[in-house]
Amino acid sequence: MLKSAPAHAFNLEGSGNGKKVIILGAGLAGMTCAYELNKLGYQCKILEARQRTGGRCWSIRNGSTNTEFDKATATANFDAGLYFNAGPSRIPHHHQLTLHYCKELGVPIQVYNNVNENTYYFAEGKGSLSNKKIRTREIHNDVRGYMTEMLAKSIDHGNLDAALSKEDAQKVIEYLMAEGGLDVDKLYKASARRGYIESPGAGNKVGKIADPHKLADIIESGLMDPDFYNVAEYTYELQGTMFQAVGGMDQIAKALEKKVAPILTMGAEVTNITNISDGVKIVYKDALGEHSINGDMCICTLPLPILSNINHNFSSDVSRAIDFIGYMKTGKIGMQFKRRFWEEDEAIYGGITHTNNDLTQIFYPSYDYLDKKGILIGYYNFNEKAERVGDLSYTDREKLALDKGRLIHPQYDKEFERSFSVSWHKTKYNMGGWAVYTNDTRRDHYPALLKPDANVYFAGEHLTYLNAWMAGAFESARSVVASLHGRVTETRVAYPETGTKG
Amino acid sequence: MLKSAPAHAFNLEGSGNGKKVIILGAGLAGMTCAYELNKLGYQCKILEARQRTGGRCWSIRNGSTNTEFDKATATANFDAGLYFNAGPSRIPHHHQLTLHYCKELGVPIQVYNNVNENTYYFAEGKGSLSNKKIRTREIHNDVRGYMTEMLAKSIDHGNLDAALSKEDAQKVIEYLMAEGGLDVDKLYKASARRGYIESPGAGNKVGKIADPHKLADIIESGLMDPDFYNVAEYTYELQGTMFQAVGGMDQIAKALEKKVAPILTMGAEVTNITNISDGVKIVYKDALGEHSINGDMCICTLPLPILSNINHNFSSDVSRAIDFIGYMKTGKIGMQFKRRFWEEDEAIYGGITHTNNDLTQIFYPSYDYLDKKGILIGYYNFNEKAERVGDLSYTDREKLALDKGRLIHPQYDKEFERSFSVSWHKTKYNMGGWAVYTNDTRRDHYPALLKPDANVYFAGEHLTYLNAWMAGAFESARSVVASLHGRVTETRVAYPETGTKG
Fold first, then answer.
1. Residue B496 pLDDT
2. Fewest CB atoms less than 10 Å from the CB: which of A152, A414, B405, B434?
3. From the CA atom positions of chain A, what is the Rg in Å?
4. Is beta strand A326-327 parallel, antiparallel or unpaired with respect to A43-47?
5. Could you give the residue ranges of the DSSP H alpha helices within B235-356?
6. Which GO terms describe its molecular function (chains A, B) (predicted)?
7. CB of B438 within 8 A of CB of B279?
8. Paired sense of beta strands B20-24 and B43-47, if any
9. Cβ contacts (< 8 Å) between A226 and chain B: which residues?
């Protein structure tokens, strides 16, 4: 019988009757699988290579350690109470399952302030607006003004191909004038939207608005290039409202860890995954040596670049999928400053400064506003920029973040204390940020991992269309739990609709 | 000597030497004046008509009372911990002085989530998109798509009047394609930006996007009318980041109240303000009868509609200004619900739903996300809409909020508990939301109130270009304190630049 699963509550029927499930990886997907299977009467065991849970759901605090494959283990040295989220730092409001788990696990949330018109654009290059910081609001409103002016004129002069009735054309023009802040002549002449050079205030302080930037200057300086498109606001996943866990995103992992602590083995590095006739055999090594355990079934949540180097007897389809699906190169650096100069001096509270250099982005913290000290994320980059920066030593990454960052915030020189950087594609037990599919790998390889390989199921953000998001881990965990449970109880569970009976 | 005043710290020199200043009104302006003058060695006394401080900086909680001039006093009956801000509910990030006082007074702040793409547009009227709720993101992204498509085509076909070089035109087209989410043929064909009708998820849940609304339907349904312009995002004052005080905006007033408690007299309704040869004489009445006190100077922060009905011997210019400067008609209703259905059912966390009916706006709370109960603001309206609704009884206002609100949220029927409404232009001791200037009143009457009338200074948001904002109260308070202190110490203090020496 096909049962429909509710959106958030997860009330599967039937019992797992003590079936033994070995779960590989204590990230969000693995711990959620264990948590949910435990509710259903399964006997689970989680093997985690690290001495911590959470995987990529990880906040760097004083004492946090990370190991990149070509470097000595690094230890963070931040002040108490300060942290940054090395992995996921944002929860979209429509990721209701993530929010459901926050609620179920008692993790308080707060707004993650993704959109901030007071941050900067910084373009290295030529052009009169290059090599200096420009407030985001200036570019947003100037460009919006020029674009609406052009279109309004075009419609006005009957130069439009579109079939607009005269009445509709008039409505569109009225809209454009409001949208762009045009004057009565349908010209963009700057407005308070782009900010003041002298703020309005008491008495005769009426406020003073600067002239707009020239469109040609904006273009020449690269500020209409893809680095500065409004993706941070428009993408479905980044549209407000966004959230974060209060006290660090790792609070979600820690809350799950509490639920699964009795069945969790840390420091257990899996070396072999073998389907055997009546179940699975897992070999792992820890400080004491090599161990072998058997289970009825296994859920493997290891990132594919890690799984790729583990011995297994999976089908050739599965084996190829593991090898061929790509992962994002990405890195972040957390920088502790003596003073929240971005708030005090520049009125920047949260949000993102965008650059076209290797920094790509500077993230200002969305917590402890008005506090004394703070950690900002000095770069958050991807692809070849992340590769280039990841190849540097920790010291040189810090130097890069300081050198490029002080062009925007000269306060760096006086206020900087210390940093900690993570290059995810070089990080042991991860070796990648998140799964990145091409049309080809999604078509040719992804489906192989959606089915269990005999007694081994695969789960994690890489087995969803929610790559990079915690929601992917949660949705995948539920999908696999439903699928596995359906097989055990011999009912078909509709989560997802395509869940196989096994 | 002209001294420049720092942006936030307020370090005036010299002593007030015990000069006696009577401050009328314990709103933010009055209490800030007292707080700052006290630091300088003045002897202040604050007279407040109400039995509470804060004025319009007021959060309605269980037991809060309000008196509208034509109604019996109403008492709020909300659950413990729930509140709504009847007055100011938002702090723009660039109101650094407001944030400075939050810091100085130890009032924690949190993000006020003003922009939320998941709220609704609701247009009453004709057209296929009328009389039903449409997600904000659908209209934003569809309109953005159509506008950029039109302009890209126009440029492509050389129909543009603007002098764009060929290279720049190409750059603009590339920008428009990204900005609007256009396809390779420069056509808007919907995208994930407008949301999914089936969310992406695990396994084969690739997600399904609906067709865009037709531009003609959007226009016909009034969704490009001024009621739905993007003002909530674009206006300088409403651009992210925005804040609120944790636990209610009245926490700012309460923190100030603590500082001035010893010099505060509540329940003191001023009836006469008289400049006398060596100072001022203030007559007020309280429960015990009429009292008269003298001071060296007075700072009057009473809203002009109130001051207009108080006896005084001000100059005719001042008297006319008091009578002629207009105030906003505005009202809000707080509605307590058993369940935060807007979060649970509709994934709306904070932000604003816009309507073209008398509700104008529904504000969802930006605090206690994921909690059980909540208060939303069922309408926040202005001008003739506020007048119409304000003229209703409390019961009929609630009925209106329910009748119009359930068209958007049918959950109202099952989940509603109780309401409390405030009509500011009918509220005793306010009789208006905030000063609203025309070009004429700003030119002809405003200047008269920027100077002291003999020994009486005027302060409040109405004496700034920051009308309606708490920043106006703070900036005006500092301006007047600097001006008054400059007169007493016979130095000229540059706050504001136009501060008179008296």
1. 47
2. A414
3. 26
4. unpaired
5. 250-260, 304-307, 316-324, 341-344
6. L-amino-acid oxidase activity; tryptophan 2-monooxygenase activity
7. no
8. parallel
9. 174, 178
CA angle A417, A422, A427 (to 5 degrees): 150
Give the closest residue to B185 by CA, choosing from B213, B149, B140, B158: B149
Q: Which residues contact A347 (CB under 8 A, 6 or more apart)?
A: A118, B93, B94, B96
Cα distance between residue B148 and residue B155, in whole Å: 10
Write b or e for each residue in A129-167: b if 16 or more Cβ atoms lie within 10 A of its Cβ, otherwise e.
bbeebbbbbbbbbbbbbbbbbbbbbbbeeeebeeebeee
Cβ(A248)–Cβ(A54) below 8 Å = no
Taking 3-state DSSP, the helix, strand and coil percentages for chain B, each rounded to the nearest 5, stand at 35, 25, 45
Q: What is the pLDDT of residues B209-242, one digit of tens each?
A: 999 999 999 999 999 998 887 666 889 999 999 9
Give the list of residues 6+ apart from residue A256 with CB closer than 8 angstroms, or none. A28, A31, A32, A35, A53, A101, A105
3-state secondary structure B419-453: EEEEEHHHECCCCCCCEECCHHHHHHCHHHHHCCE
State the SS3 of A236-285: HHHCCCEEEECCCCHHHHHHHHHHHHHHEECCCEEEEEEEECCEEEEEEE
Q: Which domains does chain A have, with CATH numbers?
A: 3-55+251-325+435-494 (3.50.50.60), 59-117+240-248+329-426 (3.90.660.10), 133-224 (1.20.1440.240)
Provide the token pair at B241.
């980041």
Question: What's the pLDDT tens digit per position in A352-408?
Answer: 999 999 999 999 999 999 999 999 999 999 999 999 999 999 999 999 999 999 999
Cα separation, B12 vs A496, in Å, equals: 67
pLDDT of residue A1: 29
CB atoms within 10 A of CB A343: 23
A192 CB neighbours in chain B (<8 A) are 235-236
Query: Can you tell me the mean pLDDT for A278-290?
Result: 97
Look up tokens 């800030």; give the residue.
B32
Chain A CB contacts of B93 below 8 Å:
116, 118, 347-349
What six digits make up the tokens of B483? 């001006």
B206 interfaces chain A, CB cutoff of 8 Å:
yes
Contact (Cβ atoms closer than 8 angstroms) between residue B431 and residue B306: yes
- State whether residue B152 is helix, strand or coil: helix
Q: How far apart are CA A31 and CA B133, in angstroms?
A: 39
Beta bridge partners of A4: A494
Tell which of B234, B367, B480 to mutate to test the A interface (max A CBs under 10 Å): B234
Distance CA A413, CA A394 (A): 18
| B325-373 pLDDT tens trace | 999 999 999 999 999 999 999 999 999 999 999 999 999 999 999 999 9
Please say whether the beta carbons of A318 and A379 come within 8 A.
no
Burial A215-235 (b: 16+ CB within 10 A, else e): beebbbbbbbbebbbbebbbb
User: A373: number of CA atoms within 13 Å, CB side?
Assistant: 17
> What digits encode the pLDDT tens for the residues B447-502?
999 999 999 999 999 999 999 999 999 999 999 999 999 999 987 655 544 333 33
Q: A422 in helix, strand or coil?
A: strand
Residue with tokens 């200096």: A132
Q: Alpha carbon B159 to chain centroid distance? A: 44
Contact list in B for residue A234 (CB cut-off 8 A) is 141, 144, 179, 181, 193
Cβ contacts of residue A427 below 8 Å, gap of 6+? A66, A67, A68, A69
What is the Cβ-side half-sphere exposure of residue A462, based on CA atoms within 13 angstroms?
Answer: 34
* Contact: B239, A498; criterion CB under 8 Å: no
On whether any CB of chain B is under 8 Å from the CB of A351, the answer is yes
Read off the amino acid at residue B101: Y
